[in-house]
Amino acid sequence: MPAFDSPASLDDEQAEALEALLLELADDEYVQAERYTEWQVRAPTLESDLALANNAQDELGHARLWYDVLEDLGHEEHELIYEREPDEWRHSTLTERPFDDGDWADVILRHYLYDVAEELRLEALEESSYAKIADRVGKIQNEEAYHREHAENWMERLADDDESSERLQDAVDRLFPHALTLFEAGSADLEETIVEAGFRDASLAELREEWLSIVVPYLDELGLETPVSEIIQYDDYDLEVTDDTLPEVRGRDGTHTEAWEELHAEFTNTYRELERSEATKIMAKPE
Amino acid sequence: MDLDTVKERAGPREFSPADDLPEEYRKAATRMIEFHANSEIMGAYLERPFIREAPSIDRKLAFSAKVQDEIGHGQLLYRAAESLGVKTREEMLDDLANGDGKFLNCFHYPMEKWPETAMIAFFVDGAAMRRQATLRRTSWEPYAHAMDKVCFEEGFHVKHGESILAELMNGSKKEQEMTQEAFETWWPRIIQFFGPTDEQSTHHGFASQVGLKQKSNDELRTAFLNQYIPKAEKYGLEIPDEPRIRENDEGNYEVVEDDLDWDEFFTIAKNEYEPGVGQINGRKEAQEAVEWVRETIEGGPVPSGNQPPQAAD
């Protein structure tokens, strides 16, 4: 039985930690989806166009589920998406990076790095002590199951060719540091509460270790180099990433790359131009 | 099969790839379906930026799904066109990129503001629905079959368009004014969607003789006006004074054709209208930028998504 079945059962610090966790989940999915939609009508084939559109809609749907949980904590969609200042967003900088024209290797790598992390994060939320989170994880996992496979199919295809493999390597060099911000905490105190209260049953440090143990050997097998070194200790080894590998901005603490302001201005443009004060719901509220 | 037999037999879903059809039929059918497929792609090209602009998550989801549906319709239609054995999908997509492929007049115009999305999603898609519904009885079976799925999904698009329109026209004064302005800009183009009157249409005669086309331009335009003028008025839109529209003795709406800019229409039909040229080239550049991917995957299986596309709602 989850310990917390409503916001009323949380103390102030727990409520703050839950909000931080949900914002990270929702913002990651939302911004990842925004970038995916750029490939609609621009993907290399009609088939890949349809597949990326599926991804975009899956992630948007998940963002919608997490923002909806935030509504229980007193927020509203228009305020969360259209009226929040850019520096109040908590997504990882991986999701906000812009694409160069035609850089399909970038979106495929981002898709892979993100979806491995997403799988691990969802696993750590399956038994969440906050009932509504645990309830929604299953539905999301059903859709995510295809994502990693799709990304891996493309990764292997691109790595198998000299020119496209080079493009993949360029993407690794650019994106890997940003992917590490997926495991940064917005605030160390809140991260501690998230784990202590059982909202998530693995720490970010544990998730990062697991993620590295999957993506680093995988990329290595495809002939791609990562800024990660292996530290061998007797019969065991660790993957080590030095702090200076991470970008200056961390996303989770509200600092972002320049591209973010531009993206934010674009998706809030119509809302501002129409002087709206509400975001229209056309689908039934998620159960 | 000779042409006389084709004309004699021409009925709904009468011909399939199993029939040995004369070149005239196969070429006419290819031209018509290719035009339709190209229009799906160029419509999606025009609407894509509005996935981002959408002022709520639900609208964003619906827009992404709509654009996806249109790419899916393009895929289906190119397949139906390919089955005539005249052109391959690659040839059709290349022609679209190099400016030889023809597509709907409305998608040669730029779209800049959110209220314009209602003009496409409600009126243009509504007009398309009228035509497509009749094409479920076209004589080329693969085309008719594709229309079953296309019509089903277009129904959702029109409903979504209507919901956007209703919201705008129930919104602030500013929203209403922007919507009326968009309507005035788009209205003549929407009427021209159905092309010139039957006397002026180059391909109409043959296409209807062989059962490819089921209704004439005039019949479709009239049916559209009868249905959509009352709907526009219901939402508080004012029908512009021009083009003049009269009610005839049978109670049908009729357009004064001379009030429409046919020079512009035929410039568009030749792919020579400026914003349209920019849109054709914009798509071409995006496609050239991913040429390297197509080269990489050539000859092998293409990684695909495992999920069926969602319908827009």
TrEMBL record, chain A:
Coiled coil: none
Domain of life: Archaea
Family matches, as InterPro entries: Aromatic_CoA_ox/epox, Ferritin-like, Ferritin-like_SF, PaaA_PaaC, PaaC
GO biological process: phenylacetate catabolic process
UniProt cross-references to SUPFAM superfamilies, sorted A to Z: Ferritin-like
Entry protein name: Phenylacetate-CoA oxygenase subunit PaaC
GO cellular component, one term: cytosol
Listed Pfam families: PaaA_PaaC (PF05138)
UniProtKB/TrEMBL annotation, chain B:
Known EC number: 1.14.13.149
One annotated Gene Ontology cellular component of this protein: cytosol
Keywords annotated in UniProt: Oxidoreductase
Example GO BP: phenylacetate catabolic process
InterPro entries attached to this UniProt entry: Aromatic_CoA_ox/epox, Ferritin-like, Ferritin-like_SF, PaaA, PaaA_PaaC
Pfam families linked: PaaA_PaaC
EC class (word): oxidoreductase
GO molecular function: phenylacetyl-CoA 1,2-epoxidase activity
NCBIfam families: PA_CoA_Oxy1
Protein's name in the database: 1,2-phenylacetyl-CoA epoxidase subunit A
Protein species of origin: Natronorubrum halalkaliphilum
Species lineage: Archaea, Methanobacteriati, Methanobacteriota, Stenosarchaea group, Halobacteria
Gene responsible for this protein: paaA
